[in-house]
Design goal:
The complex is a heterodimer of chains A (about 210) and B (about 160). The longest helix of chain A is centred in the last third of the chain and has 27 residues. Chain A is elongated and about 100 Å long. Chain A has a domain of about 110 residues. Helix content of chain A is about 35%, strand content about 15%. Chain A is built from five helices and six strands; from the N terminus they run H-E-E-E-E-H-E-H-H-H-E. With about 160 residues, chain B is α/β, with parallel strands linked by helices. Chain B has a domain of about 100 residues. In chain B, about 25% of the residues lie in helices and about 20% in strands. Chain B has four helices and eight strands; from the N terminus they run αβββαββαβαββ. The relative contact order of chain B is 0.19. The chains are: A alpha/beta (about 210), B alpha/beta (about 160). Chains A and B meet through helix 1, strand 1 and helix 3 of A and helix 1, strand 2, strand 3, strand 6 and helix 4 of B. Strand 1 of chain A pairs antiparallel with strand 2 of chain B, so a sheet runs across the interface.
């Protein structure tokens, strides 16, 4: 009778399995990239600084109390509706804009699609959003409000950018970043930069944080 | 027919040819997933708020991180979600300027304006704490800040 033999295990596919696993993990693991809402703080004002007087209609007041409730222009509001209310305010275009840095006179907002009410903002570059929160407000709510306000701006910027340059502002910024890092696209950098700045100037983000109530 | 004689068989050795592959796989896996963390967390891993309008932080060496959240050792540091961690100690907002200046010393002078402070705060912490930190940051002219948050699907 023949001796019982152990058949050899075929290990040829082992490498394939290993590579499969390697590729699986490569695809699924994400390096934790830090990301978040970027803000630039205003510089510390000098001692004798007198804040400029701003017309009440150019200020959009958002307050958050310590129970995380929202008060927008003296009316209670849900966070969901904040973006649309902010867009309505910024895009109102009811008057003359701020004069340019080179001394040119302010102009009416010819790209605004708002209702042009006398009681709301004059021009996007005059519209100030002021956020006042309580010291006891939850940070999560505060960020949610900031995010909604930024969303309002990016929606307006996207709309104007689509209208002027046939691409959304996100795409425009991406193209600009791309061109900056790519030597072949060097000739486009200047045009793209001008376009990005043009849109940013049309809808500048003016969100100011007030001293908190306590 | 004795032309096809059975081959002589012995005990086959387990094929170890793929062992290197497995080892390499593990090596790569750990190389990819490990993040160098210079500081140990003294607070519970913060539950970051979520947001859609987020920007990525580009250069890690220019970022100083401030954590805000609940201490892991409530007997020593007390309860509440408003503990501030700088480097690897629970601190107060008053120590923020020193922390920023120490970071600034290590960076070339022309890069200082590009330094960003990333605030990793738990969503349950209070705005008052964040505002205290922000005022201190403004005192030392560290004006670029980033409220760390997790990406959220648009709309």
């Amino acid at each position: 009778m023949a001796r019982r033999e152990n058949p050899e295990i075929n290990a040829g596919s082992m490498a394939d399995i290993a590579f499969l696993l390697l590729i699986f993990f490569l695809v699924t693991t994400t390096m934790n990239v830090d990301s978040g809402i970027s803000k630039k703080l205003s510089e510390k004002p000098p001692q004798d600084y007198v804040p400029p007087i701003v017309k009440q209609k150019n200020i959009f007041e958002v307050s958050i109390n310590r129970n995380n409730d929202l008060l927008v222009e003296n009316e209670a509001m849900d966070v969901k509706n904040l973006k649309d209310a902010a867009i309505k305010f910024i895009d109102n275009g009811g008057g003359i804009g701020a004069p340019g840095e080179d001394g040119t006179a302010g102009q009416r907002c010819d790209y605004c699609k708002g209702e042009g009410l006398d009681t709301s903002s004059d021009h996007p570059n005059k519209a100030i959003i002021s956020v006042q929160s309580d010291r006891g407000t939850e940070y999560g709510t505060y960020i949610k409000v900031q995010n909604e306000l930024l969303r309002a701006y990016s929606e307006l910027r996207n709309r104007l950018s689509k209208q002027r340059y046939n691409m959304s502002f996100d795409e425009l910024e991406e193209a600009y970043d791309n061109a900056k890092n790519n030597a072949d696209l060097k000739d486009q950098v200047e045009t793209l930069q001008r376009r990005v700045e043009d849109i940013k100037k049309a809808y500048p983000q003016i969100i100011s944080d007030m001293e908190p109530t306590s | 027919m004795s032309k096809f004689r059975k081959k002589k068989k012995g005990m086959p050795a387990v094929n170890t040819a793929s062992l290197p592959d497995i080892v390499f796989m593990l090596l790569f896996f750990f190389m990819v997933t490990t993040t160098m963390r210079e500081t140990d967390l003294r607070i519970e891993n913060p539950v970051l708020p979520s947001a859609t309008e987020i920007k990525k932080l580009e250069d890690k060496s220019l970022v100083s991180t401030i954590y805000v959240g609940k201490s892991t050792d409530t007997n020593r540091d007390g309860v509440g979600y408003n503990k501030i961690q700088l480097n690897d100690k629970i601190s107060t907002a008053d120590q923020v300027p020193a922390f920023i200046l120490a970071k600034r010393d290590k960076i070339a002078e022309k890069l200082v304006p590009f330094m960003t402070t990333s605030i990793k705060a738990d969503r349950r912490s209070n705005v008052g704490t964040i505002i205290d930190i922000r005022l201190k940051l403004r005192d030392v002219n560290a004006l670029k800040i980033n409220y760390s948050s997790t990406p959220d699907a648009k709309n």
